[in-house]
Each structure stands twice: as structure tokens, then as C-alpha cells.
């Protein structure tokens, strides 16, 4: 039995069955045994691969979209360029390389990485060693200034709670013990005011998810954008208004049982973009498929320019990466982009209505 399994069993013995959010938080962020706290899970040798690790084009185009937002808002001579959950720092490095071509942009940027994992912070420090960057664990620490923010596959890593509809009430899906093994169960049904709005679009047995830790983060980012200017690009898999059980465990690029090997597999849930948008005082764009967003930013032109420099296997890989990021049957539709911007401005490039 792993150390974390023993810790979880002790918690259940002391307090009763755990909400899924507590289970996820322990599995992902326990300081000694948590998934993110202890390792670099990204890339071919890790458990999953993200868009910036698939191709440099992803970070380059995001950087250029943010630089255009900066120009459109009068090119302020000081702003915060921030990334939430930067993984290996690859997206930020690619964005910074591409935006060297935009006069004044990098000189005006104060780079901030918001990261809770000590292991990944170390990787980011190495990736970004040629830049002056600052690290923090929370968006509230950012200076009061215009902010251009990126969050790719960040919100899917935040712990969720799940509730199953039972008549006018809801039973929470909890994790308890069955024959001394971790097992899902249901709490007795109760009325939950926060879910009143879901009584209209659900039936008995339906599962809904809520991500409570996303709301204060969105409120903080949105308030800063509305007050000081800037914008945000939030990219993740999910949809507008979620329904059903979307909890997923991944280990070695394969699906796993979320209750097996706690702390050793990645746990994620689809992002409910409507819930994110409802928690921000600034304006938000239409939810746009990643493929459409990248095409509008010119990924095909960039892909052709890069292809002209490649032959053989690297060329094959590059063509496959372009397809993977944009194609309908790959990440192009599953992943969506939500832009945030001040009510007085227009949506970020690539997210026009
Ligand atoms: N954006 C990166 C990594 C995605 S994985 C990419 O696209 O490759 C999720 C990232 O979010 C990891 O860096 C993880 O350590 C970080 N993270 C998760 N929860 C966090 C939190 N509450 N605050 C800050 N970072 C967090």
C-alpha cells in the first residue's frame, strides 16, 4: 500500500467518506506524495502531453495574440505577462521567442509564473533561464498593472465535487472504504442551493460537477483585467455548461481507475466554461474551438514556413503535430478557448465573434 493510500484511509477513518475535491487535492498536491508536487508528468516519457509540448507553434501564436492585444490597448510601457500552471515553461518560452519581433513588448513585460509544484518550478527555471521571471503560488500576489494572462490545461487540474440528482435533492459522490479498499459511494440526498440552477436541465441520476476553487481565481483575474486592462486566454477541454461524470485518470498516456494508485496518476475533469465566465466582472469572448482559434491566428502559414526548413522524420512529426493541434478528431474541437478582456475593449485576436 502506498503512503498516500494509508493517509487517505486514515482520513476516511477519522472523518468519514471524503468529497471528491478532498481526494483530488490530496492526490494531486499532497506536499510529499502528490502527483504534481513530486514529478514532471508532461511529455512523451510522462503521463500526458499538452499542446505546447506538441509543437512550438502553439506558444508562438498565443504570444503573438497577446502582443496584438497589448498593441490594441495602446502598448502600455509596463504590464504583467503571467501564466497559470506553466508546466515545463515551454509555452512561455515559445511566446517570448515569437514576440521578440514586436518592438517594445518584451521590454514592457514583467514575467510572472503562478505555480504550486516545486518540481515543475525547477523545470520552468531551467526553461526560462535566459529571461528575468518571477514565481508565485497565487494570482493575488501579482502587481496591480495591466495583465496578459495564459492558462493552458490549468483549470482541468483543479479539484471538483460531483453530485447526483435524486428528486429535488442531490447526493454527493464521496470516497469511502469497502472491504478496506477505496470505493465510490453516495451521501444521503440534501437540497443544495448552489445547484438550484441545475434542477431545470437535469433528471434523476444525472451527475453534475462543481469546481469551487476556480471561482475566486476567475474573480481575481477578471477584476484585474477590468480595472487595469489586458486580457486572458483560457484553453482547456470542456464545454459551455457541463453535464455528467468527466473525472479522468491518466497514467503513462493510458486511462486508469481514479481510485487506483492515488498520487501516481493525473486526475482531471472537463472545464465548465460557463461557470468560469460567470465569475468574472470583465467581458468574455465566445467559447471558440482550439482549431478555429489557431487557424485564425495563422497556424497554417506558420506550419508551411517551418515545413520548408524540414525533411524526413522531423517533417513527418511537424505535419502530424499541426494536425493534432487543429483537427476536428484530435484536439481541434475537444479543446476550447475562452478570452477575457475589459468591457471597454474588443476580444483578443483569434476570438472575434
Ligand atoms: N500549462 C502547462 C501545464 C499543464 S499541467 C502545459 O500546457 O503544458 C497543470 C499545471 O498547473 C502544472 O504546472 C501544475 O503544477 C499547475 N497547477 C495545478 N494546480 C495549481 C494551482 N492551484 N496553482 C498553481 N498551479 C497549479
Name the features.
binds S-adenosyl-L-homocysteine, Rossmann fold, 353 residues, 14 helices, globular, 17 strands, five-stranded antiparallel β-sheet, alpha/beta
Topology:
Blueprint: H1 3-15, E1 18-19, H2 20-29, H3 35-38, H4 51-54, H5 56-72, E2 79-84, H6 90-98, H7 105-108, E3 109-114, H8 118-127, E4 133-136, E5 147-152, E6 161-166, E7 169-178, E8 181-186, E9 207-210, H9 214-228, E10 230-239, E11 248-251, E12 254-256, E13 266-268, E14 271-272, H10 273-278, E15 283-284, E16 288-289, H11 290-296, H12 299-307, H13 312-326, H14 331-334, E17 335-341
Parallel strand pairs: 2-3, 2-5, 3-4, 5-10, 10-14
Antiparallel strand pairs: 1-7, 6-7, 6-9, 7-8, 10-17, 11-12, 11-13, 15-17, 16-17
The structure holds S-adenosyl-L-homocysteine (SAH).
In short:
36% of the residues lie in helices and 24% in strands. It has 353 residues and is of the alpha/beta class. It has a single domain (37-159, 211-340), classed as Rossmann fold (3-Layer(aba) Sandwich), CATH 3.40.50.
Write up this protein.
The chain has 353 residues and is of the alpha/beta class. The chain has one domain: Rossmann fold, CATH 3.40.50.12710. The chain has helices at residues 3-15, 20-29, 35-38, 51-54, 56-72, 90-98, 105-108, 118-127, 214-228, 273-278, 290-296, 299-307, 312-326, 331-334, and strands spanning 18-19, 79-84, 109-114, 133-136, 147-152, 161-166, 169-178, 181-186, 207-210, 230-239, 248-251, 254-256, 266-268, 271-272, 283-284, 288-289, 335-341. Strands 2, 3, 4, 5, 10, 14, 15, 16 and 17 form a 9-stranded mixed β-sheet that branches. Strands 1, 6, 7, 8 and 9 form a 5-stranded antiparallel β-sheet that branches. Strands 12-11-13 form a 3-stranded antiparallel β-sheet. The longest helix has 17 residues, at 56-72. The termini are far apart. Bound molecules: S-adenosyl-L-homocysteine (SAH). S-adenosyl-L-homocysteine is lined by residues 36, 42, 50, 52-53, 85-87, 91, 114-117, 120, 152-154, 157.
